[in-house]
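chain below, 565 aa
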Amino acid sequence: MKSAEIRKKFLEFFQERGHKIMPSSSLVPENDPSVLFTTAGMQQFKRYYSFPDEISSARIATCQKCLRTGDIYEVGDESHLTFFEMLGNFSFGWTRKNADLTQTNAGKSYFKKEAIEFGWQFLTEELKIDKARISTTYFAGEKEIPADEESAKILEGIAGLDEIKPTGFSETFWSLGTEGSPGGPTVEFYVDGIEVWNLVFNQFVLREGKYQPSEFQGVDTGMGLERLVAVIESKSDIYETDIFLPIISEIEKISDKKYGENKREFRIIADHLRSAVALISDGVVPANKDRGYVLRRLIRRAIVKGRQIGINKNFTADFFEDKNVKTELENEETKFRKTLENGLKIIETQKEFSGKVLFDLYQTYGIPLEIVVEEAKNFGREIGSGEIQESEKLLRQHQELSRTASAGMFKGGLADDKIETTRLHTAAHLLLAALRIVLGADVSQKGSNITEERLRFDFNHQEKMLPEQITEVEKIVNEKISENLPVEMEEMSIVEAKSSGATGVFDDRYGDKVKVYMIGDIENPFSREICGGPHVARTGELGHFKITKEESSSSGIRRIKAILE
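prediction:
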């Protein structure tokens, strides 16, 4: 059973059981400054565990793309990845008061009993895994949180499930670990001793460092597709599945080496390039901070590993067809190969390797610590554990700065709600309407970042805008500013918003009502968008609109930077 079939089976299984199938969210979290990337399937839904009335369906299932870099140096073994797909089913709004109702109504929320039974049924009936291969664990109680006896009893009542083991907090209690995030005890399914499915029962909310009982309970499950495929294909090596074999084969051709003789290098290249492509496709570009810094690190580590197996030419772009992906990879590799050679020369001639030197080699030349250690050893120099620890400390401090640099982002891509930022936000609405006139009605917003100095606006378009098109867009926006049009807001349902012609993301995650901002005559406005605000009262407050740059953002996505003078 191949990966595509397993993914399809999972979603269909839960759809048949009253779940709404939702698309994967971006690897770049929406309005969530607590993390750089989407790291879990529940991340886009975490608010709804506390506010279940805001989501349109109490039952949801997804296949969510995720990126985690905490174990990046573990990548290279048989099982660790940075990018992976997470299969998950979710339930929101369950309470003890409606327990009888929820267990009989497939359209309503559910809790432990149904979640555990769904898991067992999918593994044994849909995937036809031998029951004797499956074992489970549950939360034994710890840190003033009682044991999950309810789950234990449910597991004991499942015919054919023979191995049930209680475990501690670190194994069977899960939370994002951020203030206000849900969390709770878990039940884990293992196949042949390999963990494949984690069922989290969100009974608590993390408040001021303590887990407090939540008004609502919910289900959050996660099952890594790549690991599940390996189990189904009876492979101990996740890289020998149909997900990775194509790229492994291409690395063999480019390097003229065999996977079996260079497993660690092949695995790192395959994983890191897969992650890089996913990030670039979601609008991330290589940079020296935040998400771009992580992307750059992944690409460069893949290049170094390629060099170690004899690839001394640009190769990262050779695996992919997408034009923008190829361009970003090619540019980054060309740039890095120049600095890499300089860095390696320093390693060759360096007499002592202090923690600061090791960190600088990584920070300045992009050479990971492990590579510095390996290369130095090749030149007969041993690097001590003290120097390595000091370098790791400096790196952790740098990573912490990178992680917190994006904190404080305002909703909708706004840095704050200052008047200058608000003016540029309204200008962004005029910009989108003008782009749809000049480039076509299929243009839609794909992202934005607005500060009090400038706006950055991403939109779908395959080609670089012509100078005359940019001039025309500026002209239209400034005409609407000079007309001093009113900016009005009206609350309506998503259905009403869509039928009214409003632009925006018609996402079922929203509640019953959305805000629609209209610029111009309310019956026939120039712009009509779903938006949370804030905005100016009239366009005459904006000043003169000027586009300062138009460039590529990612595959099929263009980016405009503009100011108000």
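The radius of gyration is 26 Å. The mean pLDDT is 88.
thats it, cya
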